[in-house]
Amino acid sequence: MSHSRKYRIDKVVYPIQKFIENEKAGGLVLGISVIIALVLANSPWAHDYHYFLEHRFGFQFDGKTYLEYNLHHWINDGLMAVFFFVVGLELKREIVAGELSDPRKALLPIIAAIGGMLVPAAIYFAFNPAGETQRGWGIPMATDIAFALGVLYLLGKRVPLALKVFLTALAIVDDLGAVLVIAFFYTSDISALNLLLGFGFLFIMYMGNKMGIRSILFYAIFGIGGVWTAFLLSGVHATISAVLAAFTIPANVRLSENDYILKIRNYLTLFKEADVNNKMPTLTNQQLHILDEVKNNTDKAIPPLQILERSMHPMVTFIIIPIFALANAGVSVLDIDLKQIFTANVALGVALGLLIGKTVGIFLFTWLCVKLRIAPFPKGMNLKNLLGLGLLGSIGFTMSLFVTQLAFSHEEYKMQAKIGIFAASIIGGALGYSVLKNQDKEEGKN
User: Fold this and answer.
1) Cα–chain-centroid distance for residue 415?
2) What is the total count of domains within the chain?
3) pLDDT at 26 over 50
4) What is the CATH number of the domain that holds 147?
5) Are the CB atoms for 163 and 383 separated by under 8 Å?
């Protein structure tokens, strides 16, 4: 058989693959998307930018239109449902076999995340105790995991692996908290019939899991055509359906690791023997059959949950989140009246809630947990890099922008919230990076 060759297309594809696999890439693409949205909103094309997002789409049947929403709504309720589905897959994986599966290891990031949600909400409430602005208390509770980890990974190997694991676990618990907040506090009038239908489809998916159905198509049909559509029409935010659907995806394997190794070794031997008299660049029928068996057994050895998570993660990171940022991060700086910003305390509540609330909440709750000997610090973590992680936790872009759209109908309040999110995220990210980088230098001197 001929040896593998490198083709010209590899010179194009390989760098793209390496970029996608890079931990910093997601945060970088998201940052570029935010900048583009801000440029468009403050350019001569600002009107076209906003008008484009108001185009309406729907489905027509027998002269009637169904599910007709504008593009902005489709992005926030449709594309973001895919984002939340992947969040749900990550949550289930972490609970089944990840950082949240060991109660003692999971306790510290869980407590840190709780502190990072309660303190920001309390600070926002202090500035906005009543009226429509009060609804924004959920905005500073969220951490943008892509941005936060992107900043952390900029420091490379100088940051202990334990810090990256801790921040990831914290952000995942944070996402779960945001999902619960959206489910219980940011829903419109509820249609009991559609909600019941949604849970009926969820039950079918759950039973499919228990019966051993591993077909991704099965879960896609009932998840999108059933659960997501029913929740969209029910008044409960459609993204909640995505998280619930994710928890019905099988996380088990049909073929154990040891059995898989034995089978693959056997197939490799057969494949090698089948190649003895083959002088052509193509494969023999026997070889094709062997490779089909290898593929079938490989599929049995990988949980559908991980297949979906791995295949969907690049799409979410490099397509869905950037599109969401382009649609929601456009704030017209040219139209900002400084007096108008402070007519309400939304910007102040969001900015201080994220920057001060997140940092203090994560730091204080973690420190108390360690001090009271409820859980120990992970190896390599100390008070100074905990402070750095707390500051990175104040980066709230994606989820905070998402909650902003749910919290307010008043455009002025949305604009104020976005200004607060941008200010806190930029300052928190820069300070967090600086604290962690300076600590690395101090450790190098010692």
Assistant:
1) 23
2) 2
3) yes
4) 1.20.1530.10
5) no
